[in-house]
Amino acid sequence: MPSSENDEIYLRQALAEANDAEANGEVPVGAIVVHGDKIIGRGQNRVLRDSDPTAHAEIVALREAGLALKNYRLEDCTLYVTLEPCAMCAGAILHARIARLVYAAPDPKAGACGSVLSVMNHPQLNHKVEVTPNLLAEECSTLLTTFFRKRRQEKSQARILQNDAATEKTPEKAPRETLIASKKKKATKKVTKPATKKTPAKKKSLASHL
Ligand code: ZN
Fold first, then answer.
1. Which residues, listed in sequence order, are joined to residue 31 by a DSSP beta bridge?
2. pLDDT tens digits along 121-149
3. Active-site residue among 58, 64, 130, 139?
4. What pTM does this model have?
5. Cα angle 128, 132, 137; round to 5
6. What separation in Å is there between the alpha carbon of 87 and the centre of ligand 1?
7. Is 58 a catalytic residue?
């Protein structure tokens, strides 16, 4: 088990994984598993890339660590993760018999180490994990809040563009409808003429491509 003096160094490795996840369009969460002084598992959130709801950073790192030790029990290992584990990951950490867990930001929405649920170190469960929370918490939660803020801005920007496109179409339709309603045949012809002229031209250019 690595000494707690190196916790920040290892947690920064998990943070690097989180940044890489963000660069790939995923929610930035990263994790690593350390055995002795060796990193034996690295993971980053990849649920979108893999279409896999279980592909949380912790699970990915635990799988790699299990393969490295050729053992599904990861006793004497420490798991470092940038966000408080959810119920699924807390369960996996317990099944793996991880000795120590170091995490950065608490997760008030899904954290299972006390924030929402207390799966980790539940009094009725046998395996106890030494938990060190809130290391580099500010840095890691800023990473997440900035990510979600950016995503919200992108979504509202896309909505504005959609609305703009919709309102650009309506003024064209509106006069045509009113013109038809007032039976001004000449005016409607003016509107429809350029449209009929354009269509054969388009067909020609398409045909030339074929
Ligand atoms: Zn999880």
1. 43, 81
2. 999 999 999 999 999 999 999 999 999 99
3. 58
4. 0.76
5. 145
6. 7
7. yes
